[in-house]
Amino acid sequence: MNVKTETQGSAMDTLKLLLSVVILIAGIVGFYLLEAQPLWIRLLALLAMVGVAVVVALMTDPGRRIKSFFSSAKTEVRKVVWPTRQETLQTTLVIFIAVLLTSLFMWAVDSILFELVRWFTGHGG
């Protein structure tokens, strides 16, 4: 009995997702078929169709899981300890200095190798 209910739920979810895709495709096709209408009307109709498609998709089990995931992610973002302005500026300064020193080192190595290649190949002045 439980397997039958699970299969029916899965079949209904599949139908709802299919309906959602059909609504989305209809919105896109309608956007191009109504080219005589002003752009803002076409965009409004397209956004409405996308909204309806999303609502239908969220009524499925995968849709509820996605909604739950984003809700959990939002909760986790609130738990993050964000750096202060001073910490951000100090970190940025350290990174800037590290990049500057690395680029100077790479320039020096490149210059030395260039001069060595010129000396070995006899193209030096």
UniProtKB/TrEMBL annotation:
<keyword id="KW-0813">Transport</keyword>
<dbReference type="InterPro" id="IPR038379">
    <property type="entry name" value="SecE_sf"/>
</dbReference>
<keyword id="KW-1133">Transmembrane helix</keyword>
<keyword id="KW-0812">Transmembrane</keyword>
<keyword id="KW-0472">Membrane</keyword>
<feature type="transmembrane region" description="Helical">
    <location>
        <begin position="14"/>
        <end position="33"/>
    </location>
</feature>
<dbReference type="GO" id="GO:0008320">
    <property type="term" value="F:protein transmembrane transporter activity"/>
</dbReference>
<dbReference type="Pfam" id="PF00584">
    <property type="entry name" value="SecE"/>
</dbReference>
<dbReference type="GO" id="GO:0006605">
    <property type="term" value="P:protein targeting"/>
</dbReference>
<protein>
    <recommendedName>
        <fullName>Protein translocase subunit SecE</fullName>
    </recommendedName>
</protein>
<dbReference type="GO" id="GO:0065002">
    <property type="term" value="P:intracellular protein transmembrane transport"/>
</dbReference>
<comment type="similarity">
    <text>Belongs to the SecE/SEC61-gamma family.</text>
</comment>
<dbReference type="InterPro" id="IPR001901">
    <property type="entry name" value="Translocase_SecE/Sec61-g"/>
</dbReference>
<dbReference type="GO" id="GO:0005886">
    <property type="term" value="C:plasma membrane"/>
</dbReference>
<feature type="transmembrane region" description="Helical">
    <location>
        <begin position="88"/>
        <end position="109"/>
    </location>
</feature>
<comment type="subunit">
    <text>Component of the Sec protein translocase complex. Heterotrimer consisting of SecY, SecE and SecG subunits. The heterotrimers can form oligomers, although 1 heterotrimer is thought to be able to translocate proteins. Interacts with the ribosome. Interacts with SecDF, and other proteins may be involved. Interacts with SecA.</text>
</comment>
<feature type="transmembrane region" description="Helical">
    <location>
        <begin position="39"/>
        <end position="59"/>
    </location>
</feature>
<keyword id="KW-1003">Cell membrane</keyword>
<dbReference type="GO" id="GO:0009306">
    <property type="term" value="P:protein secretion"/>
</dbReference>
<keyword id="KW-0653">Protein transport</keyword>
<keyword id="KW-0811">Translocation</keyword>
<dbReference type="GO" id="GO:0043952">
    <property type="term" value="P:protein transport by the Sec complex"/>
</dbReference>
<comment type="function">
    <text>Essential subunit of the Sec protein translocation channel SecYEG. Clamps together the 2 halves of SecY. May contact the channel plug during translocation.</text>
</comment>
<dbReference type="InterPro" id="IPR005807">
    <property type="entry name" value="SecE_bac"/>
</dbReference>
